[in-house]
Structures are given as structure tokens and as C-alpha cells.
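Hey, resending since the last one bounced:
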Amino acid sequence: MSVAVTNGVEIVAARYSSEGASRSLFFSTDARALRARYPDDPRVQQIADETRAIVSEPLGDLPGAWQEVPESQIGVVRPGFHELRTFTPRRAADATAV
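The C-alpha cells again:
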């Protein structure tokens, strides 16, 4: 399973398979970091600061432009910030027994 949801500010993208072999999932690197890394590439210089994308396979040919969401992880992306977190689903009965 790969899924991404947003509230208009934050994007949360999850990659998970109970068999441990889900399809790939990537999120784009922060545009400011890409512009610093590739100052002479006009494609990168046109990307707005807070532009981010979630994709199943990396687009383009720029090393470092995409970060893979590892198996059983979620990627959280919001303005100026991103992180990876462990994702372990629980059954509904387990979720209420916290």
C-alpha cells in the first residue's frame, strides 16, 4: 500500500505491505536545497520554495532530487520541514487499547 493525504499544509505519505515488499514511494527534496545544489540548472531555479511532490518513481535525472520512503515508514512533509517515521498499523481493537 502506498497512500498520501494532505490537509492543505502538510502531506503524509505512507508505504507499507504486510508482506514487507510494497511498491516504491518518493517525495521531492526541498526546493531551496535543490537550488543550492544545482545553481546552474534552470529547471531547478524555477521551482517555488514550498513545491513538493509525492511520486511512485523518481522523475528526472537529478541525483538528490528525491527521497525514498522506506518500507513501513511514513514521510511527513510541510513547509520547511520533512521527516520519516516508522509506520506500524494496528487493528481497530488494538488502537483503542492504548
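Residues 29 and 48 are 12 Å apart (CA to CA).

Sorry for the duplicate.
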